[in-house]
Amino acid sequence: MSSKTKTTLKKGIKILLLADFFAVLATGMIGPIYAIFVQDIGGDILDASWAYFAYMVSCGVVLYLMGLWENRVKNKGAFVVAGYALNALGCLSYFFVASQWQLIGTQIILGLSQAVLSPVFDSLYSDFVNQKNKAREWADWEAMLYVTNALAAVIGGYFVAFFGFKNLFLLMFFIALLATIASTGMLKGKKYLGE
């Protein structure tokens, strides 16, 4: 690739990729072993289904409303930080889950976090994408998502095998906090983020 066609990612995309890496790593650790956790708290397959339902409905309904509202918001970076902070709270909430109702509450928190985050994340990412390199820069995010989820699945399984679910949830919370901290870079001005 010649130096004339070489492009670098803008700071805004680098911050979003870093923050999302931590968030995906944190939440991805429970994914493949979620049903085992539900069984550990006395639940069954229907309980897991209802908890997933609560996540999807809370996310879907609120996401639609946030999408309508967030277009009018000037400081979208604040919503990115809020979304990642809610994600960290959801990860921590798993630590306290002892019943199906608490699990549903945790799933609602995680659904709300995704609903707050998704529209502004996509909007900001789109704003910072180099228009001549759209496919590659969106592929950067997609590739990060899949590879990080793959790593998270293995890390989560091994971590629970050796240290148990409670310790996994603390690890998830700590990593999700890193996502929140990283996302605070989105509070800087558009000029900085667009460099």
CATH architecture designation = Up-down Bundle
Count every helix, treating DSSP H or I runs of 4 or more residues as helices.
7
Q: What do the pLDDT scores average to?
A: 92
Structural class: mainly alpha
List the helices and strands and how they pair.
Layout: H1 11-28, H2 34-40, H3 45-70, H4 76-96, H5 100-128, H6 134-183, H7 190-193
Helix pairs in contact: 1-4, 1-5, 1-6, 3-5, 4-5, 4-6
Q: In words, what does this structure look like?
A:
The structure is a single chain. The longest helix has 50 residues, at 134-183. The chain contains 7 helices and no strands. Helix content is 79%, strand content 0%. With 195 residues, the protein is an all-alpha fold. The protein has one domain: MFS general substrate transporter like domains (Growth Hormone, Chain: A). Helix 4 (76-96) packs antiparallel against helix 5.
Keywords:
mainly alpha; Growth Hormone, Chain: A; 79% helix; single chain; disordered N terminus; globular; 195 residues
Summarize the structure in short.
This protein is mostly helical and 195 residues long.
